[in-house]
Structure formats: C-alpha cells, structure tokens
Amino acid sequence: MISAIKGMNDLFGEKAFRWGKMEEDIKKMMVSANFGEFRTPILEEISLFKRGVGETTDVVKKEMYDFLDKKGRHIAMRPEGTASVVRAFVEHGIGINYPSPFKAFYIAPFFRYERPQKGRLRQFHQFGVEIFGDETPQMDAEMIFTASRVLDHFGIDYEIHLNSIGCKKCRAAYREKLIEYFSARKNELCEDCRTRLEVNPLRLLDCKACDPKCRYADVPKMTDYLCDDCRNHFEELQKALHAFGVKFVLDPFIVRGLDYYTKTAFEIVAKTGGSQNAVAGGGRYDNLVSDIGGNDTPATGFAMGLERLFDLIPEDFYHEEPLAVGYALCDEAVLQLVEFNKKISNKIMTLNNQIRFLADYKPKKLKKALQKAEKANAAFVFIIGEDEAANGTILVKNMATREQKSFDRNDKKYISGIFNFMFPKKQNKQ
Ligand code: HAM
Questions:
Q1: Atom of ligand 1 nearest to the CA of 282
Q2: Which residue in 12, 341, 342, 411 is a FRET match for 146, CA 20 to 30 A apart?
C-alpha cells in the first residue's frame, strides 16, 4: 500500500468542511480590514530563503525541502510566506504601483522537514498577513490586533508575548553583551548553543535543549539595550495595543526563529492544547525589502499555523447543513430523479445551501433506501418509486419525526412546498 508522506496529511469529510469554513471566516475578516489576497508559487529559488530568512536559521539550514531541477537550478519548497511575498512585492514594483500601506494576506501550504508530531507537520498551512509601507508602531499594533481578532472570533484562550529586538544598530551592542555573558558559561551550554554563540547568539535564547534563558536569572535583555528610536517605537506600540484593547505580556526573550525581524517581535501561545502551542508569530521587518533588492520599505506581518488553530476550535463551532438524499426505486424513476436534482440544486443555491443534496440513482427497494439514508445520517429523504414515477409526485420524509408528505411535481411551487415542509418555521420565498 502506498501511504501519504510522513508529516503530510489528507483532509476530507466533515473535517474538510470545518476547515473550509474556518478559511472562509478568516477571509471575510481580512476583506473587512482591506487585506487583499496574495498568492505566490510553492517553489522559489533557494537563494531567496537563504538571503531572506537567514543562512544560519534552522528553517534554512536543516528544514528546507530543496532539489535541483532538470536544468540544475537549486529550488526550494517555501518554508514560510514572508520572503516570497517580499520577492513578489519587489518584482512587481508594488511599492511604486500601488497605494501605501499595501496590506496582503495569504492562506497557503508551507514545507519544513521537521520531526513530525501533533501540531508539527512537514506540510502545514499558514494564514498570514504582510503590510508594506508603514513604519508606525500603530500599524504593528493593528497587525497584532488582526491576529488576536481571528483568535477571538474562534473563542480561543491565548496569550500574546511581546518584545522588541531593536534595529541593526542597537542589536549589535546587545549581541556583544550576550556573547560576553554566555562565553563565560560556555561549558554549561549544549553543543548547538556553543555554535550559536559564534554565529547567531540571539538564537541561544530560543534553545529548547539547554534553555539558558531560564537557567540564569541575570541574562541580558534586549529591551535594556534599545536605542531611543526603538525604545520609543516599543512604548508607542504598547499604547496602541491598549487602545485596540489587546492584552499582552512583555517577554524579553522572544527572538523568533527567522532572521529578518527588526523592532517588534511577538508570539501567541494557546493556553490550552499540547506542547506545540505557538499558534502565531511575527513582527516588523524593515530591512527585508531592501535586502531582497527593493527600495527601503518598512514592513510588518505575522503568520498563524492553521493546523494548530483548527485543533483549538471546538468541534461544534460549525455544523454541516442537514443532508437530504433522493432515491429512485425503479428504472422509470431514474431520469425523473435527474430532473428533480436539477430543480432542487438550483433552489439550494438560492437559499444559500440550507441543505446538502445527494442523489442515489441506482434503483433499490424502499427498505434498502431507508437503511442507506439512516447510515448516511440523512435528515430528509426524497423518494420516487413506481407510483410516484407514474403520477408525477415525490415523497418527502423527515427522518427524525418520521413525518412524510407527497408533492405534485407538476405544481410550479412544489419545490418551495418541500422546503416549507422540511423547515416549517423558516420563510422560503419562491
Ligand atoms: P513562524 O513562527 O516560523 O513564522 O511560523 C508561524 C506559525 O506557523 C507558528 O507559530 C506555527 O503556528 C506555524 N508553524 C510553523 N511551523 C510549523 C510546522 N512544522 N507544523 C505546523 N505548524 C507550524 C513565520 O513563518 C513568519 N513568516 C511569520 C511572519 C509573517 N513574520 C512576518 N510576517
């Protein structure tokens, strides 16, 4: 048997229905805040992620799916969305051709070769936003508010961890301070952290193995080293978050796993759920557009893990519409069921999918049809048997109440009559 690749999931049935609804709700919220959808290809030149995300990050160094194509070009399957959107932003001159701020959102699959476990996949999905052309702390606040709005909509219990990791200028001093501090404790660090100390000391603060930030009480904090501009930005951001009514905790050790951040950095952790409880993360990245070859453009954004979000949404948040199944009980009824399908499908569309309709064209005995309907958990059954086929009627049965009624298919308003029978309290206008 051929199975799906490890860490990559199939999605179907009721779960796919709820997933689709989740995406629909997110899209509606994005459109209302003037975010436009942004789609980029799954494959990019690997150099984009090396330059954009950072050569020394785990995502680029260890987790990328990459290959040489038939012409020997080095290609990667995107591990995240920001670098791709920035590449497209520069390539299409969006900063010049579109009004600023430019607000984009995406819902898309991403690929990271991580050790699969619950909430951590090799093909996972993110909903993300990227906002270009606005350097204000208020726009960072709006970006974080956008993430919190989505989580609030789904009734999720979460905590926002906020930090500032400064700019190139002030981070250099902090970096030196960290190197000095941890060099004195080098022997107590794990092997990875000893390497991090040389190449990317901020990443030490994110280590899950030896966890140095928790082992020592006096680890230097970036927020003590911010320059005036970064400190002011951080303070104004906090004021704007209060004005948006967004609660957060200050967490001086949020450094993020990707290299492009400047100033604002944040993560959102779910208070319920398993160990993979980081549901979203993001921040400001004012240098990335110019690093990728564009004009100096401030930018800010976040991404939310959709598998993690989905697992936090209560199962009864969405309900599938009731199922109605149409059965033909004899050969003469089959084409009549086809005609009925056309009529009821049109009506269902005009009523915004009040029911789901399934036609079962293979003739069968009434008893068998009702057994199948029971098994499919159908709420309603439409039957065209020998009598109904001969006299142009259709029998509609409510499976819960066992009530049934015959409708004359020659009557122009019979489809509306059927809906009135199925949903007696609802007004079904013809
Ligand atoms: P990230 O923190 O790497 O940020 O990923 C964002 C979210 O994606 C995580 O908080 C998590 O919920 C989900 N996620 C990441 N890896 C996996 C995985 N292997 N399996 C399941 N879920 C996962 C970024 O990707 C940045 N591009 C965010 C951003 C946008 N920053 C600025 N703009």
A1: 31
A2: 12
Shared domain check, 72 and 19: yes
- Dihedral (Cα; 330, 332, 336, 338), 10-degree rounding: 70
* Cα 125 to middle of ligand 1, angstroms: 9
Residues whose CB falls within 8 Å of the CB of residue 229, separated by 6 or more in sequence, listed in order: 167
- Which pair of tokens denotes residue 176? 């030196």
What is the total count of domains within the chain? 2
Provide the 3-class DSSP secondary structure of residue 25. helix
Alpha carbon distance 430, 426 (integer Å):
12
**Ligand 1 center–CA 64 separation, angstroms:** 14
Is 150 inside a domain boundary? yes
Q: Which domain holds residue 382?
A: 321-425
Query: Which ranges in 102-252 belong to alpha helices (H)?
Result: 137-153, 168-183, 191-199, 212-215, 228-244
| Separation of CA 18 and ligand 1 centre (Å) | 21
Q: What is the pLDDT of residue 427?
A: 52
Whether ligand 1 lies within 6 angstroms of the CB of 114 is answered as: yes
- For 264-317, the pLDDT digits (tens) are 999 999 998 777 789 999 999 999 999 999 999 999 999 999 999 999 999 999
- Please report which confidence band the pLDDT of residue 430 belongs to, taking 50, 70 and 90 as the band edges: very low
- Distance from Cα 233 to the centre of ligand 1, integer Å: 24
Tell me, what DSSP letter sits at residue 124? E
81 Cβ below 6 A of ligand 1: yes
- The pLDDT tens digits of the residues spanning 228-272 come to 999 999 999 999 999 999 999 999 999 998 999 999 999 999 998
- Is beta strand 74-77 parallel, antiparallel or unpaired with respect to 65-68? antiparallel
